Amino acid sequence: MAAYILRRLLLVIPTLLGIMVINFALVQFVPGGPVEQIIAQMEGGGDVFEGFAGGGADVDTQSAGVSDRYVGARGLPPEFIEELEREFGFDKPPLERFLTMLGNYARLDFGESYFRSISVTDLVLEKMPVSISLGLWSTLIAYIVSIPLGIRKAVKDGSSFDTWTSGAIIVAYAIPGFLFAILLLVLFAGGSYWQIFPLRGLTSDNWDSLSLMGKIGDYFWHIALPVIASTISAFATLTLLTKNSFLDEIKKHYVMTARAKGLSESRVLYGHVFRNAMLIVIAGFPAVFIGVFFSGSLIIETIFSLDGLGRLGFEAAVARDYPVIFGTLFIFGLMSLVVGILSDVMYVLVDPRIDFEKREG
């Protein structure tokens, strides 16, 4: 197992390199870099993308070379544009910039944001608690509810309980997360009905003056609605996956043998079936966590006014803040690859019969 983990860790390097190469190459063809962002702001505060629709044909001949590259740089001297390029490092060839970036990343130096005057590491650490709160609690709640429900559905397969719970979770799965989040706000956050939960933020304004128990209660009070909105669609997949895994195991011969020996139903289910049936569910844990952590965070964070990694990534992409874009891409890519390795380790912990060394051989 140790040799397998070592090989997987070594594969992280070329995988991350491939991710960075592809994304860095794509960025070279995307219009509207950070220099254009500054030019757009200085030329009237508009968005950089306004210049791509046309206009700019009436360009001063003195700065024609600059305008060929930067649409809208009518009144700015070429020297100023060149200074911006040097400041951002765009006076160097793309290959040199890419190799320099990789060298810095190897030292865990992710640079500084172009527009926020703060290092990418500090920026990610500042936003991380919000996204971790959403991802961790949503994943835990989904597993805590879905696994017992899936087991119960497998035991009661074909019954009325199985039928109406299947309908309920399919309806929940069909509701878009953002729509459910808005519904929660309208109903429980002072929209049109009850003012039970806060409308925005992760903590109250008087957080520092609260006691330890007060801080814990305030935290869960704020995180309740965002977590529910993030979790609602995860129930269906996990519940049905658990149910189908248990149904497959229940039909096997060793289960009939255990029952024939007089073991109780609970002993059969949780002493024999559970370990085998949970393999596929445990293997899906990283995907569920990463999915909640990344995919749904932007919409949920925006609706509930939470300043997390989803909004950070979106704002960095719009502003073309390349250090933040590539720094977070590297960090999140590394996280997802390591979590994938951890899922294999969890396989072995749950069922020691699994041997990745023999499987690869």
TrEMBL record:
It is found in: Cell inner membrane; Cell membrane. GO terms for cellular component: plasma membrane. It is a multi-pass membrane protein. Gene3D superfamilies: MetI-like. The keyword 4Fe-4S does not apply. The chain crosses the membrane at residues 9-30, 130-151, 163-189, 219-242, 277-304, 324-350. Its main location: membrane. InterPro entries: MetI-like (IPR000515), MetI-like_sf (IPR035906). Keywords: Cell inner membrane, Cell membrane, Membrane, Transmembrane, Transmembrane helix, Transport. The keyword Membrane applies. Residues 128-343 form the ABC transmembrane type-1 domain. One of its GO terms (biological process) is microcin transport. PANTHER family: INNER MEMBRANE ABC TRANSPORTER, INNER MEMBRANE ABC TRANSPORTER PERMEASE PROTEIN YEJB. Belongs to the binding-protein-dependent transport system permease family. This is Microcin C ABC transporter permease YejB. It comes from Pukyongiella litopenaei.
